[in-house]
Amino acid sequence: MLRSYYFSDESLLEGGCDEAGRGCLAGPVVAACVILPKHFSNNTLKDSKKLSQKQREEMRDIITQDAIAYSIAWATHQEIDTINILNASFLAMHRAIDTIKIKPHHILIDGNRFKPYPQIPHTCIIKGDNLFCSIAAASILAKTYRDDWMTKLHNEFPLYNWKKNKGYPTKEHTNALHTHGTSPYQRITFQYKK
Fold this sequence. Notes:
The protein contains six helices and five strands; from the N terminus they run ββαβααββααα. It is of the alpha/beta class. The longest helix is centred in the last third of the chain and has 24 residues. The termini are far apart.
């Protein structure tokens, strides 16, 4: 069972942050920041990778309805190529924190590294999306938003079948790259193998 909060202090608002799309060959990296009510609980809520697409979409509706505040932001494929994927992930998370309507007092980050956000302390938690509700919620929003975006891009470039692979380096995607070349949404600095 996921925990609601990292700190016991009832006055602290914690924002969970996570991203989706770091390992993709195309498209943006998308991040979300979510502040959930103190005693939020849902038996389906977990790391987005452990849910089906239908479960993720159902949970997205619950999260966006019940959250105290949430925001979604991204870094483009061009920014990824310019500053690298790690820094682009931090940039996307900073943008999500920038745009959230209620600022958290503390940020919980999924993973082991983060570029500090001005005037808001943070805690990095390895596999935090398996431990804390707010990070799991952020993982679901980031994943579903990015999947929807890649499905829209698929309509422009159906050769790569992004509606199915979402830009990840599947055999089908890499074969399409070798056959048809790169699209305008490709991360040029990323290596892909046949």
